[in-house]
Here is the input.
Amino acid sequence: MTAVAARAPRATRPRPVPWTRLVWITWRQHRVALAGVALLLGGLGLYLLIMGLKIHSGYASVTSCHPARSSACQLASNLFTNDYHPTAQTLTGFLLAVPVLVGVFVGAPLLARELETGTFRFAWTQGCGRLRWVITKLALLAIAVTSASYAFSLLFSWYYQPWLAKGLDGVLAPQLFALRGVDFAAWTLLAFALGAIAGVLIGRTVAAMAASLAAWAGLNFLTALFLRKHYQAPLVVKGAGPSNTNPPWVFGQWYTGPNGAVVSQQTVRNVAAHAPASVQNSHNLNAVTAYLAQHHYTQWWVYHPESRYWHFQLIEGGWLLALSLILLAATVWLVRRRAA
Amino acid sequence: MNVIETSGLGKRYGRTWALKGAALAIPASYVVALVGPNGAGKTTLLHMSVGLTTPTTGRITVVGSETAGSPAALDQIAFVAQDAPLYKNLSTADMLHLTRNLNRRWDQQRAEARLKELNIPLDRKVGKLSGGQQAQLALTLALARRPRLLVLDEPLASLDPLARHDFMASLMAAVAEDGLSVVLSSHVIADLERVADYLIVLSRGQVQVAGEVEELMAVHSMLTGPAATADDVTERLAVVHARRAGTVAHLLVRNGPDPAPPGWEATPVSLEELVLAYLREPGAAALPGPRPRATQDSGIRA
Amino acid sequence: MTIDKQTDPVEGPGERGTGAAIAFRLDHTSGVPTYLQLVQQVEHALRLGYLGQGDRLPTVKEVVTSLAINPNTVLKAYRELEHRGLAAGRPGQGTFVQSTPGTVGLPELTALRKTLVTWLRSADAAGLDEAGMVALFTSALRDFHDRRGETPVPGTRDGDRGQAGRRTAEGAA
Here is the structure.
């Protein structure tokens, strides 16, 4: 049982070290990590800028083509798409990893390296005390990585704009959703928070990086595959599909038979196989669907319309922010508690 | 003012007690040697004095009545941990700047003058300095904070003999200049014999000896005489440690008789002899008696 | 233990007149308390004329920097020298030598040394080795002072021990 010593009255307590002094320290100790982030985002950003300018000028010439429905203009449009779209789509795959790289690379060494090298015994016994020290560092670096990521995601949105305008990709699609709006920055902040708490829990830089990377990846996959579609009750429609002009996020599709029960894809294929040859070989893409409908096989769609984009961004951004703040607060609490 | 005061202080890690029931009242303006074998609890005690560890039992107050680890305490205590941890990738000048930014009080001129005297270049990365230079840099940073109390955990352990001498000379010069209190630990007593004027012996987590060196030296003596009459003598005196070699017996006694018993010779003991004797006798202790709050009564109980 | 440990005092920091006139050294094995060793070295230097009236003793900081000892030890030594009338502190300037009245003059010292060397030659001729010479001298000295009823002489083993023990015993009471 530890007795509590009487505290000195406020008037005689020393003035605490000003917050501004800690800014220089944060910068000086983490400038390598921040430079790495600047290099990564800067390098990718430069690529997006250069390619983006090309894409935008190409798109401008496509849209200014008259008449729009002529086959010449269609051809120009297709060529434009084939030139740039596949690369852009592949790029999105790589860019999904940027938040975790940025966040963990800055967040994990923050505390892990101090604990690993023993320098925390120096830092935490200075007049400033460990609370101010850790809160300032976490806050400054969190703001730095989050705002850098946000700026990057704005650049990416601008870069990708033509494909969205052409309706080639949906904004709610998993590979795009996490790169735009506030989501990119929010996932970066979470990676940073995971890195920081892993750092103080594990006390070894490499292990902390690995652990926080794994945790982030797991959470990210789970959200994209399972959680995100539940942010709002999805819309269900039957027949030809959602009628929105912009691609909705369709994540479920099934058939029901004449009695109204769900039938498997195999059953549907069997029924379609019995369709007359004229239907099967028809040039009308909807011929088989119409045949199925005649025989009382209905196609159902479950989806979220793209109008829900910002709603979902705010929900996801919101819980990511809340979780990050909880993790950061927990990190501060752990630093406070930690014995030598 | 007591620079470190503890009562019933204990720390348990899992099932082992690193420190148990420590009661200390270390007065200011002393150079305090904290000695004991490895694992005795020296580092645990020092870490608790600077708030790096919190006690399991008991309490510890520092520099008067401040809670150990509080902002007021950290402001007045400078600590150099074992192996003098520094940021190896920073330059010396950057380390100065960083330490300045982490403290209210800072004497930049003094720090620079010291480093110049020691030939430690300001623009070199800390990792490129020698072990002795890094230790001196850590000491410089601590002294530039103008602390009331300087706490050093095994500062000499990884230094070569020349670096050790220079470090201690530097430290003593600073004590001469500023009159600050120093607590330093070592598992090599010889290092501290010439500099300490207050001694604490810690063994297996327990404080065995705590007191001014002068007093301890005055009160202890070595009785040398025939082994035949040794048992006789032992009965009547407070013998800390007895050693027999053939027909001769050496008894380290507390409050020994003056003059020595017939056939016996009394000689003063060295600090090292004293410490070793107590370390060899885990049950023995030389601690100041209980003292009333206001005054300081330095009786020594058997 | 006394004269042969005397170090050349002029090798102190700086030449005579610019720095302190004496540089101390320590013998860790002698068993003599550190502060007493410093006191003795000053006394020896005084007796043999290497230190004179008005010479500046090293500052506490200087001694501590060269020997790496506790500053309080130096302060204790200088206090003891003041107590014996051998030195005096001037605030802000340092500690300076004050010759004691009754110090043996240099010509007398030279004459005494000559007589001593003659005696040493006789002792050597008689077959006495160094330890025997020291034992004979110490015993004669003890008898001399016992007969005179004086307190033991500081500078001999019993004298220092007796004085040190007495002094610290007084302090501890």
User: Anything to note?
Assistant: Chain B touches chain C through 25 residues (CB under 8 Å).
